Amino acid sequence: MRLGIMGGTFDPIHYGHLELAREVRTALGLAEVRIIPAGDPPHRAAPHAPAADRLAMAALGVQPYPGLVADDREVHRAGPSYTVVTLQELRAEQPSRPLAVIVGADAFLGFETWHRWREIFALAHVVLVARPGIDLASGLTGDLAAEWQARRTTDRGTLEMHAAGSIYQQSITPHAISASAIRAALARGDTAAVRGLLPDAVLAYIGRNHLYSEPSPDAI
Length: 220
What we know:
Blueprint: E1 3-8, H1 15-28, E2 32-37, H2 51-62, E3 68-70, H3 73-76, H4 83-93, E4 99-104, H5 105-108, H6 117-123, E5 125-129, H7 136-139, H8 142-151, E6 152-153, H9 158-161, E7 167-170, H10 179-187, H11 200-208
Parallel strand pairs: 1-2, 1-4, 2-3, 4-5, 5-7, 6-7
Helix pairs in contact: 2-11, 4-6
């Protein structure tokens, strides 16, 4: 059965992340979706919470969701958290299993900046989820546009018949939840503003460990 992979900083994990993973898993019939917090994300500023805390929050967040599993490999692996390395590890563990890496359409526009990005297609399918205002048909250029034209499919069965290599678009329900807005509210001490945006267990963990209590640059 197909395995989904969803990486990110998850700083903190919230219902936007969790519902996206749940919807994609259900729509594509994935056996499991691994939620993989980046230990050292190479494409963005350092996360606000330590990697161990982000992993702990992810583990708490997925508990009510059958088929969602927090994976600790990038937190415990030294060096930058490159997706291609994670996929190589998963492929080595189960050589013939179809893998599907879940990527937001906005992130895919910058796919050519990812470490060894071409190799990702040999290791997994890429499942793109829509983002408001992002038009891939007009936004892609150069080599990435060529890969898009050559690899895109509307046949969900392709994701199971082959272990890797296709690009598939999956529509999801939009969830206007922002991790930066959650951090900003918590820095103000406004816990009430974030209730319902992330699981209660995650919010309780944040409180116990005094995370996001100081204003960060993106909260000012």
